[in-house]
Structure to design on (197 residues):
């Protein structure tokens, strides 16, 4: 038996364990991103010195790395094992969301180098949030397609991730729409974001 067949058999034997790892990495990667984003927002509110490589940003990027890793593992798994359409679509959406997050992260790095610190509202942040929503939605699809005892326990966390991500993006779009009023009334807190808008 050649090496490729051994790998294929290994993946096939452990397909549900590997799929569980994909779901856990995605779900807890998003939890990690949310914690890092809240921490970053608090740091902005407390006016702590910021650059791109602060601890809150690193926490966010560890979460993005977890999601990207889960997407890669999922795609490798799809090459070897046939899953139903919903599971396949979920894995593809997780990876798509991870790619969007990586691209927006690089955009954020470039933005920090060109413009300095940014506020809550920037194109790279909103793109990152869209990638998080995609990954969260993909995780929910995978869980719903393979709804068993293992996945039953993580479904509430995945749904909460999806809801928080949607609310977060909605809040930021609301800030954009209301920016003239918010920037006038609360200029100190949102000052950098107001400059970018």
């Amino acid at each position: 038996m050649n090496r490729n067949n051994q790998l294929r058999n290994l993946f096939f034997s452990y397909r549900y364990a590997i799929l569980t790892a994909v779901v856990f990495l995605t779900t807890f990667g998003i939890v990690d991103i949310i914690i890092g984003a809240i921490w970053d927002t608090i740091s902005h509110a407390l006016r702590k010195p910021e650059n791109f490589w602060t601890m809150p940003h690193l926490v966010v990027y560890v979460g993005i790395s977890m999601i990207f890793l889960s997407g890669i593992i999922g795609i490798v798994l799809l090459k070897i094992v046939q899953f139903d359409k919903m599971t396949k679509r979920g894995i593809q959406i997780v990876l798509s969301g991870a790619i969007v997050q990586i691209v927006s992260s690089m955009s954020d790095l470039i933005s920090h180098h060109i413009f300095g610190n940014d506020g809550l509202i920037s194109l790279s942040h909103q793109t990152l949030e869209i990638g998080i929503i995609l990954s969260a939605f993909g995780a929910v699809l995978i869980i719903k397609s393979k709804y068993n005892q293992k996945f039953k326990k993580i479904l509430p966390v995945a749904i909460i991730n999806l809801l928080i991500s949607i609310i977060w993006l909605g809040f930021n779009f609301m800030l954009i729409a209301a920016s003239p009023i918010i920037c006038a009334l609360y200029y100190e807190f949102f000052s950098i974001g107001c400059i970018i808008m």
Remarks:
- The chain has a mean pLDDT of 82.
